[in-house]
Amino acid sequence: MRTTDPxxxxxxxxxxxxxxxxxxxxxxxLIGKAFAEACAQFGADVAIADVKEADPEGxxxxxxxxxxxxxxxxxxxxxxxxxxxxxxxxxxxxxxxLDGLVNCHQYKPSTFFRRFEEYGDGDWDSVVETNLKGTFxxxxxxxxxxxxxEGGCIVNMxxxxxxxAPNQDLYKGTNMGCPAAYSASKGGVAALSxxxxxxxxPKRVRVNMLTPHGVWDNHDDQFERAFANFLPMRRMxxxxxxxxxxxxxxxxxxxxxxxxxxxxxxxxxxx
Length: 271
Prior knowledge:
- This protein is α/β, with parallel strands linked by helices.
- 38% of the residues lie in helices and 14% in strands.
- A seven-stranded parallel beta sheet has the order 3-2-1-4-5-6-7, with helices on both faces.
């Protein structure tokens, strides 16, 4: 609306997703589940897309019991073009349109935490294939559809470790870490997102990023205490604390925001 009178705006309505259809890749994961639930609560029709082993169809049926809109689950291999093309066809068959894409997928093979010097070509390729190529494919195929129709919103997920290097002291005495393949793939996601934000702006497709950090996933007490020493808020986050940021980026509340990386990290990157 072209106005300078804030009293003429329903600011609560700006956050509504009623009438919008949203695809969430990796929608069965820790953060993806919170994203799907939040989008459904704000009125969106939601397609939960994930690998077969994650049972996206089951998650879709469970979510729809609580949703005001329609929720479906779709199996996808995000690193395969034909699978992503099929995802788009299924979404259009059910919803008739597509307004939002959230790329929440990532891949951690059994060799994920190998030392840099020990990473093989296959280890590297498997991470990059899913994290970066998968985001490229979903943006090109699903985002491309939005660009040729009514526009829409894309939210990609880089990582704090695409912004800063991992502090290796955090992982001492654990079998965890952050491999270079992960940082590199997520850095590529950030660069791709900025590119697409400029490229598709004339097509009314906004492309933003959402970067969480330290999301609790039944970590042991020792790691949780260690993590708390490395950031100002002195604790890990929870998946439900990330989801409201997604609603902002998908909704009309962020109608003049594109190319932005909204970092939800408890202050990790300010030190």
